[in-house]
């Protein structure tokens, strides 16, 4: 469904951020993209959704295909209309609008009838029952979890075929993270939406996704079925923070590991 | 204070404030959607008034083909202003996307000079006294005021409301109400409110942000033209209308730049302040009615810098 071939991304004509990234999202699947801060995960998502250009970023090499059609030269507005919607990092809301207005904003470009929008709202409330009671609240005052639900719900209102999720677990309590990821999985199964999931929380991401890629400084350094990656020693050590004994590693050890890797790499 | 004049001046102030409120809405609209403070707005207003005057046959020397009834002249002027709004956004502002905000604001100042020059060229520099009005200046409703306290109100037994003033007030109120309902309840209104909060987010949802900017300029063209017509009905058409519209600036700052209700309240307050000062007993105070809005603004901003309805950013961490 989505195929990225060896793309290079440059910001402001000089800052090379992606140095040949290739990945694939098959239809109906959840694929995860892991990596540390600054690896280029968000940049990859913005390259797909076309939002790069607004930040003076550009795909300078390689191609992005969606259902066989090249989309790397299209504008963000056109790409949304093809069925790709990005949920931006940090769960940004229109904070002075109500929850329901936020949700409706996700469907604005579709010019759908009021009755079909009502139907789609019900579908969102089916996945996030909690939002129904909050629909007339000003969204800026919601809790972090409720905001994340609103943001994902708003993306659903676009009726996407591919959803790009940027760090939905950011700053949420572990229990809530589990809830959100369960719903993400249900959205994928019940609505058939393919999902490209960017995460730093590798543990949950690898449990949810079928396949995963690991990025480091603008390159994909590792990929494989999620279950297999969860077993991979490097991943375990670095991203899951576990030693072979299953203990948590301290931050210092991880830092040391990173440094060692840089020397060796 | 000349108390017997106060009720009459209150009414005058309210009527005048209605027009200012409508004018203020247009500036707030553009500011909200694109963060550009539109200094060309007063000139858009002046141009709208001139266009209406021209379409209504005001320039007639005997052989002009166009002489529409006032209503149609207004419609024609509004259409031209909407088109102009789109063109300004497309030709002057969109190419400047990504430039510093100050550069864009200066562009609006440049536009205002172009408008002033064009109006002088097209319509001449002399003020026009013949703006079409369906009312004669002397028509007025009279509201009897029952004597409250036999002594003090002895001179004032009625308030007069000129038909013209009342009509401008009614038109301003209806237009402002339509404007607000449009924003609250239509899809385009929602798209505009969403865009005004976060451009990147709006774009990520497929909202065509440049189109929203263009639309806000077009709608500002409507409010400017209507405001221009209302002011011209009261005082005739001249290039000075652009300066008169400047009073909308303190109104907006009073209300808090980003708020529609704020613009309306601010407009009414400025109208009231201007007219009430005219009831002062001291002649110097009476003659300084024009600066009353700014004095009010100064005092007010010292107490509440963000304006009446100024938004605090909602932040949750
Ligand atoms: N608009 C921009 N202009 C210049 N450089 C940028 C821009 N946006 C991102 N970068 C740089 O690109 C690199 C990758 O950023 P990106 O946001 O893609 O990382 P990320 O993997 O999403 O990180 P995080 O996990 O912290 O969100 C970083 O070094 C960042 O500084
Ligand atoms: Mg990121």
Short précis:
The complex is a heterodimer of chains A (265) and B (317). Chain A has 265 residues and is of the alpha/beta class.
Assigned CATH architecture of the largest domain in chain A: 3-Layer(aba) Sandwich
Shape of chain A: globular
Strand content of chain A: 25-35%
Rg of Cα set of chain B: 21 Å
| Mean pLDDT score of chain B | 85
How many DSSP H or I helices of chain B? Answer: 13
Which pair has the most extensive contact? A-B, 32 and 23 residues
Number of helices of chain A: 11
Mean of pLDDT of chain A:
89
Spatial order of strands in the largest sheet of chain B: 1-2
Number of domains of chain B: 1
The amount of helix of chain B comes to 55-70%
Order of helices and strands of chain A: EEEHEEHEHHHHEHEHEEHHH
Number of strands of chain A: 10
Numbering strands along the chain, what is their spatial order in the largest sheet of chain A?
6-7-8-3-9-10
How does this structure look, described?
The complex is a heterodimer of chains A (265) and B (317). Chain A is an alpha/beta fold and 265 residues long. Chain A has 2 domains: 2-231, P-loop containing nucleotide triphosphate hydrolases (Rossmann fold, 3-Layer(aba) Sandwich), CATH 3.40.50; 232-265, no CATH class. Chain A has helices spanning 41-49, 76-82, 99-105, 114-127, 129-133, 144-156, 174-191, 202-208, 226-231, 233-238, 251-264; strands spanning 2-11, 15-25, 30-35, 57-66, 69-70, 84-87, 162-166, 194-199, 211-216, 219-225. Chain A has a 6-stranded mixed sheet with strand order 6-7-8-3-9-10, sandwiched between helices. In chain A, strands 2-1-4-5 form a 4-stranded antiparallel sheet, covered by helices on one side. In chain A, helix 3 runs parallel beside helix 6 (144-156). Chain B has 317 residues and is mainly alpha-helical. Chain B has one domain (3-61, 77-244). Chain B is 65% helix and 3% strand. Chain B contains 13 helices and 2 strands; from the N terminus they run H-H-H-H-E-E-H-H-H-H-H-H-H-H-H. Chain B has helices spanning 6-34, 41-55, 70-93, 101-123, 163-185, 187-197, 199-204, 209-235, 241-244, 248-255, 260-277, 283-287, 292-303, and strands at 140-144, 158-162. In chain B, strands 1-2 form a two-stranded antiparallel ribbon. Chain B is globular and about 65 Å long. The chains are: A alpha/beta (265), B mainly alpha (317). The complex binds adenosine-5'-triphosphate and magnesium ion. Residues 11-12, 15, 17, 35, 37-43, 55, 57, 89, 200 of chain A line the site of adenosine-5'-triphosphate (ATP).
